[in-house]
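Lab manual, section 2.4: Encoding a predicted structure.

Procedure: take the sequence of the chain (570 residues), apply the prediction step described in section 2.3, and record the output as structure tokens. A sample record is shown.
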Amino acid sequence: MGEKLLKNKWWWLWLSMLFVAVIYVASLTHFRIDLTREKRFSLSNSTKRVLRELDEPVMIDVYLTGDLSAGFKKLSVASDELLSEFKEYAKGNLQYRFIRPGEGLPDTLRYQVYDSLVKMGIKTFNNQVTAREGEEKTERLIFPAATVMYGGRQLPVDLTSGKSGMDEESTLNYSEALLEFKFADAIDKLTRKEFPIVAYAAGNGEPLPPNGKIKDLFVTMSKNYRFGVIDVRSGRLDADTINALLIVKPAEAFTDAEKLKIDQYVMHGGNVIWFVDKLYAEMDSLLRAQSDFVAFDKNLNLDDILFKYGVRINGDLVQDLKSAKQPLVVGQVGNQPQIQRLPFPYYPLLSSPSTHPIAKNLDDVLSIFPGSIDTVKASGIKKTILLASDTNSRSLSTPAIVSLQSVKNEEDLRRFTKSYIPIAVLLEGKFTSLFANRLTNELRDSLAMSTTKPFLPVSSKEGKQIVVSDGDIVTNVVTESEGALPMGVQQYENYPFANKEFLMNAVDYLVNPNGVLESRSKDFTLRLLDKEKITNQKTLWQLINIGLPILIVLLFGWIYQLKRKRDFAA
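Recorded output:
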């Protein structure tokens, strides 16, 4: 008996030493295993790279804390878990804290803090909280946002995201999926040492400053890139210098010499985003005429070059029953017109049929008189539809008659039979030059005057282009009372559509191939509890959750005592 006890002592000693060794090794090599199906706790490689390359401390203040409803509490916990993961990869260069703005301050100072946060662009939210079941709800002002600080600069991060029409649970789940991208994107922008050069093409009737319709475009781009205007006719389009070229809403035809410069910019590795209206159709003209008008072709002379690259912008206008609203006259009250905001089919709300990171998890994008795009055969070019209409669409071919009363009866509604008409297409690969077999001496001479680089019939390396058949996606409304509104916001309506987000994602994808955009591809499945079952089976599950663990402990205790009796009896 004594020998058996001695052996047991040595066995326990070795077990204790092994346990201490495991703890020591675990303290040196920290790792986590993500067992979730959608890998919600795993960071993308680009995010890890940004965090590992931090050379100075990053401080993050998160304002979503305190008494919160269940949905916002879940978002707060998800933010904490994500930033804890960030901290692991940052190796001491990232700290974060959760704070309630203005807590402990007198009312006057607290409201000053609130005001300063709002001026930074942080949104407030009235959150209804129920302390206990059956009690009345109390409303609290919360800030579902954070501030990322680095090197004396700071950027606000809105923790909420969503699509129009989503309920609160879906919106917060959607927000959780984008947390990694939002924090990583803010850190990436603050720590970026070199800013890509993005040029805005001029010379073919494009809107230019001080035109208020492109104010938000210029402000947004200037914050994130080295951004400026280049005249296509006289400027030098050098792919080694200019990372991307924006062509926005041209109104005048391109000459062959201008197209050759753009073409060779692409052949040498340049990237282009085309925001092109093929037809002339403007709301200002419709309101001035107060009647129907015919949308006509602008004759921009771009059909051949875009066709060569793999797309064709059609001479039509896309309508969709899922559309933004426009003030329309619906009747008369006495001598006064009765105006009501109604869905206007010429303003389709676009979404993405693909899972590409540029457009995935993106809210609706507002378009104004867009045309449709067809993809055509182009050897070696990968085509991805980024934006398309919804499931109840139609296209009106030229001559397209634009009318304020485009949908008059039920018969008109039955004509919206098309689905997912492409409006924005991404092209990737090695492009073939439009001038590969048609370069005249005159064009060769004009090219020699603008660049020292040789003519290339095929791209020297893979490039990217995005073709969008609506120039108004990146313009903004200008009002007499408020001036220039943000991109994607309509007059009389404060809801911001995702136009600006689409633009920034598109440009970032072209100029920053190793950026954090891939983290937008996360997709969290919303697994909701059945509320009816919760109510009906509440008592049963409470008994199981409380009673079952106690029964298991008692069962193991009984088995252990039974085993001891048998051992001593032996």
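Check your result against the sample. Residues 39-191 form a domain with the Glutaredoxin fold (CATH 3.40.30).
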